[in-house]
UniProtKB/TrEMBL annotation:
It comes from Liquorilactobacillus uvarum DSM 19971. InterPro entries: Metal_resp_DNA-bind_regulator (IPR052509), Tscrpt_reg_PadR_N (IPR005149), WH-like_DNA-bd_sf (IPR036388), WH_DNA-bd_sf (IPR036390). It holds the Pfam family PadR. Gene3D superfamilies: Winged helix-like DNA-binding domain superfamily/Winged helix DNA-binding domain. This is Transcription regulator PadR N-terminal domain-containing protein. Residues 2-74 form the Transcription regulator PadR N-terminal domain. The lineage of its organism: Bacteria, Bacillati, Bacillota, Bacilli, Lactobacillales.
Length: 172
């Protein structure tokens, strides 16, 4: 994400953080403000970025990062890699489901309801983002949010099935 943003235009770590927030990227990619700074410094150290210290008027100096040829090559090699070999998807809550047998059935059912409720809340949040930003953000951002909407719909359906099976198993 960071290299792609720097292909668009050079920017400081603070501008990058604001850019990520404005584009609501943290809704669909695990990225935090500290990791923006940390990763820019790391990529700069690996030689993927150039930096220039700029001072504007009375403001403190800031470091502006820009992607260089080595960074562009790395960016495009990563794009190629992920298009040919997507990573496995790990879903944190499956560990919870896999351990349901270790809790009291009544408590387990309550926990499953909590999971379904929170998955529904996440889906509603994503749907509201799609509607609110549809005309202001690039198509790829909307398509990624739509992917998450579909995933949350599938997760909700799956948790209903699991809850049903869980109730059936614990009533016998």
């Amino acid at each position: 994400m960071l290299l792609g943003a720097l292909i668009e235009k050079p920017m400081s770590a603070y501008e990058m953080k604001k850019n990520m927030e404005a584009r609501n990227i943290n809704s669909w990619v695990k990225i935090s403000s500290p990791s923006v700074y940390k990763n820019l410094v790391a990529m700069n150290g690996k030689g993927y970025l150039d930096d220039e210290v700029v001072k504007e008027g009375e403001r403190p100096a800031k470091k502006i990062y820009s992607i260089n040829e080595k960074g562009r090559n790395y960016f495009f090699s990563m794009m190629e890699k992920y298009s040919k070999q997507p990573d496995k998807i790990y879903i944190d809550f499956v560990a919870f489901v896999a351990n349901l047998y270790n809790v009291d059935p009544e408590k387990g059912l309550e926990m499953m309801k909590n999971l379904r409720t929170n998955l529904s809340k996440e889906r509603e949040y994503i749907k509201s983002n799609i509607e609110a930003k549809k005309e202001f953000v690039p198509f790829y951002a909307i398509s990624i949010l739509e992917l998450y909407d579909k995933m949350y719909a599938m997760f909700s359906e799956w948790t209903e099935e699991i809850t049903h099976d869980y109730v059936q198993k614990n009533n016998h």
